[in-house]
Amino acid sequence: MATLASLLQDSQRLQTSHTHAQDLPSIQLGLDQIESQSRRIAGRSAKEGRGSGNAAYLLASGGVNADHLSSTINAVNLTGTFEPLLPLSDTDVEGYLRHTHEQTIISSIEEGRRATTSDFYRNLDSQMRKDWERQKEKLFEELGRHQASGSSQTLESTPRRKGAGGGFDRGSPAVPAPSAGSSLQMHSRMMRYDRVVRRLNDFRKEGYAFGLVSALGEASAGTAGDSKSAQTTETFRLLARLVKETDVLNGEFQRTALSEREYAQAYLVENQEGQAAVELRKTLGNGGKSWLEEQFMSYVDRTIASRPAEAALGGIPSVQNKIRAFLNVKYLKNGTWSNPSLEIANSTPIWARMYYLLRSGHAHEALEFATENEAHIQKLEKSFVPYFKAWLDSEDRRLPKLLRDRFLSEYNQRIRYLASSSDPYKHALYKLIGRVEINRRNVPGVTQTTEDWLWFQLSLVRETEGAGEAPHEKFGLRDLAKVLVKFGEGHFDPKGNKPMLYFQVLLLCGQFERAIAFLYQHSQYQADAVHFAIALAYYGLLRIPARSKTAEVDLLVVEADPSGYDLTRLNFARLLHRYTRTFVLTDTEEALNYLYLVCLNADVSQDQVQLCHDYVRELVMDTRKYSMLLGDIRNDGIKIPGQIERDLKLIHLKDEKLYLSGIVKTAAHRADQEKRFNEAILLYNIAEEYDSVISVLNVELGNSLSRPSATASGNAESGSYFANGGTVGIAAGQEDVAQVARTILEHYDRSSSMGGRVSRKNRETCEILMRLKEAMTLYEQGRLDHALQAIEDVNIIPLNSELVHIIRAAEDFKDLDEAIVRNFDVILLTTMNIIYKIHGGLKESPFGDASRQQKMNELRQKARSLMMFAGMLRYRLTSETYSSLTRLDVFIH
Question: Where in the sequence does UniProt note compositional bias of the Polar residues kind (predicted)?
């Protein structure tokens, strides 16, 4: 038994002999191994340090001096441990180089291992992220159709094809949640929208302008009492005013027409301070103001009609008389003006009369009234009429500089500080004329309603090119938009039950992308939001994000801009895609017409064309209505174009060749990858890729060798295929793959334009596989001799005893098509089984004639040839196959 003392002596001898142990190999550790072991030893030493006192007592009891042992260990010199096994002299250059070379190789291997490992995990992470992004986008596309909503019934949850006050609506009731009746109305409106979109595409194909906004507005109209439809129709009227779409009857312009993408160049330009962008904002601002004026005039008419006695309209219902009557209803109570702040002149609130004439869009009548009453007005404000006339005569409603200086002096001296006690309408007129105190754009007592406030803001808006406006006077449409977006929906619709109101607000300030994204959040308005977006995109008034920035589910992308104004972009393509997913299977042609519209933005990015093509291919593959969408080819060679081919102009494809390669061939390739045999054959055939048709057939024929053959009924059906004038795609639906292949080859042989495009190798492979399939069928039917003869006729398995033929067949094996090679195990096993069964039948026969013995010898020779051939292919066959062949060969011999 070894004691601690003996162990100590052994260790001391080991230390003494260390430097002389030349055969002791050095330890080769990598840096990472040395580091990990050092850390482990250091950690263990720290833990064991606390018990070192007890260890010393234990060692002392065994006769070991712990302190002396520790100092001896510390004196051990390990510097040469990792040096070369044999000491190298200073002059042994070759040994030094060899050692350095070995160490360099070891270091390179270690470094390569680390780099390879790092690259592997980095590439794995990158690929997983890409796969996740693709899956996430598909998931978001699906989830996007089921967004949560406060209503009990969403657009998507209701089956399609089962089977309507406007504007800001002063005091109109809240829009109710969708009911069964409203759902029917909604779907009826959707069908009317479909017809408009179809007509739009018809006009686009012919190159004609189409009054889209007006047509959609007519389609949105509902029945009497349908407040939601009335609001939608009124909002389409607002949009028509914004884009200046006028004189439209049934979608056709009667006078000046707007073209497709009319405003794209001005709206999408990067420099929003340029002349084109400024003029467009002027157009939008003036259009919105005009709509508010028209709407207010309608309100005036309704007010007068509801209270005729108080209005006392009297004689001719001119604009002047209507505004007078309106003021009577508003302020005249029992012959007394109810608002003491109003300044009365010539028996009328004179400032209010001029203001409301402006508010209703009658500037000429306002100036006429001021001129007629100039004497009365001069008693109140001596210089007002000249200011008013100069302001109205100016094209951009701007006072000349000298006149404005005088105006500001008077305003600051007299009007500004008396605003709280003077007539509020006079204060409002002065603010409009002089555009003063631009940071305080509210006039209490005048801008009391949303529409009045918005009209006042739009009247103060002034667009200038470049830096033409002083900073303290700068207030354009984009500045108004920042204010309104900051207010948010809650300011204009606190209860959240009239979303169309805030939608109109966003349209009025030119925030089209935000408007669409907001309205689409409300399920009962999703169909309307889509068609508002189509109208805006048609005229070039929607910005779209780059395809690289559309991975998330949100439709709206907001980007900060150095100018201080956010740039908003709407994923228009995804919006259309989501919408069509709700009815793509039931109304495929309508869905297709919507997807065509993705190409409206082709002038922005060619990615939109590619995205449109992707969506169209997806629709084709999902619906599988190939004949309707892609067309067909009759057995007599006549091609029948499909819906997509008739609409190539709408998806920016110049000719049939691009259509076949860009749409049909790509869809066929996808079907081929997804192992959708019938569809791949049909699509490749339509794409005129006849060689690919045979390639797909070869793969399926090869796979069918291990499956039972089709029933007799399937064969009978295929025989009548071309007699009925069908298509190759219909033939592909038959059960007997071999019969399908035979029928297709015969069809191609009748047409040199088709047959000439099939490669010789593919044709030969197809014929071999058909014969092999025939042999398999005969084998299943028990017709063994015929089956064996069919296999021999194929001549890919040498069943004669001549070695030279066997070697040649083994060499030719490498030239066989993959469809044959992949199934060669089945072919060989089936052949050996046929030989075994025929041999077994002869062996059990009670007749012992010479012909039977000769036949059995021939079969044994065939089996032997087959085994020799299989031996040459051993490494191309599975071990199970070779074992089965060997076992059957033993039974035969």
Answer: 148-157
Six-digit token string for 837 = 């069964």
Q: What whole-number distance in Å separates Cα of residue 496 and Cα of residue 491?
A: 10
Q: What is the distance between the alpha carbons of residues 129 and 301, in angstroms, rounded to a whole number?
A: 63
The DSSP secondary structure of 158-196, one letter per residue, reads SPTT-----TT-TTPPPPPPP-HHHHHHHHHHHHHHHHH
Q: Is residue 690 part of a domain?
A: yes
Read off the pLDDT of residues 209-246 as tens digits, 9 standing for 90 and up: 999 999 999 999 876 667 888 999 999 999 999 999 99
Q: Are 244 and 315 part of one and the same domain?
A: no
The residue whose two tokens read 């840096």 is 31
Q: What is the average pLDDT score of the chain?
A: 82
- Cα four-point dihedral sign 537, 542, 548, 550: negative
pLDDT tens-digit map of 531-564: 999 999 999 999 999 877 665 567 899 988 888 8
Task: Tell me whether residue 422 is exposed, middle or buried, using C-beta atoms within 10 angstroms of its C-beta: 0 to 12, 13 to 18, 19 or more.
Answer: middle
Among 444, 465, 486, residue at a domain's last position: 465
User: Secondary structure of the chain: what % helix, strand, coil (to 5)?
Assistant: 65, 5, 30
Best CA proximity match to 322, nearest among 346, 297, 347: 297
Residue 79 confidence (pLDDT) above 90? no
Q: Please say if the pLDDT value at position 342 is more than 80.
A: yes
Structural tokens at position 707 = 């499956």
Question: Do 739 and 806 sit in the same domain of this protein?
Answer: no
Structure tokens at 801: 């005893």
69: tokens are 């042992």
**How buried is 747 (Cβ within 10 angstroms: 0-12 exposed, 13-18 middle, 19+ buried)?**
buried
* C-alpha triplet 373, 379, 382: angle, nearest 5°: 90
What phi and psi, each to the nearest 5 degrees, are found at residue 332?
Answer: -90, 115
CA 225 to chain centroid? 39
Q: Express each pLDDT in 494-519 by its tens digit.
A: 888 889 999 999 999 999 999 999 99
Longest dimension (CA), the chain: 144
Please indicate, yes or no, if residue 257 is contained in any of the structural domains: yes
252 bridge partner residues = 249
User: Which range of residues forms the domain containing residue 750?
Assistant: 624-771
Cross-strand partners of 641 = 631
What's the chain's Rg over C-alpha atoms? 45
Residue 421 class from Cβ within 10 Å (0-12 exposed, 13-18 middle, 19+ buried)?
Answer: exposed
Length of the chain counted residue by residue = 893
* Res 786: pLDDT: 93
207, with CB counted inside 10 A (0-12, 13-18, 19+), is exposed
Distance of alpha carbon 648 from its chain centroid, rounded? 22
- For the record, the structure tokens of 292 come out as 């508010």
What CA–CA distance (Å, rounded) separates 754 from 739? 19
Specify whether 331 is located in the same domain as 455.
yes
Q: Looking at the structure, do residues 867 and 756 belong to the same domain, yes or no?
A: no
Residues 572, 577, 581: CA angle, nearest 5 degrees: 150
- Assess contact for 630 and 645: CB atoms under 8 A: yes
Instruction: Using alpha carbons, select from 369, 377, 358 the residue that is nearest to residue 321.
Output: 369
Cα atoms found within 13 Å of the Cα of residue 655, Cβ hemisphere only = 1
Dist CA 594 CA 738 (whole Å) = 41
Q: Are strands 248-249 and 567-570 parallel, antiparallel or unpaired?
A: unpaired
Helix count and strand count (H, E) for the chain: 44, 10
Q: In 10 A of CB 593, how many CB atoms? A: 21
Same domain, 259 and 335: no
- Rounded Cα distance between 300 and 451, Å, is 13
Residues 460 and 372 in one domain: yes
Q: How many domains does the chain have?
A: 4
Which uninterrupted H or E stretch holds 558?
Answer: strand 556-559
Q: CA 346, 347, 348, 349 torsion: positive or negative? A: positive
Quick one: 767 and 633 in the same domain? yes
Q: Which of 441, 465, 489 is the last residue of a domain?
A: 465
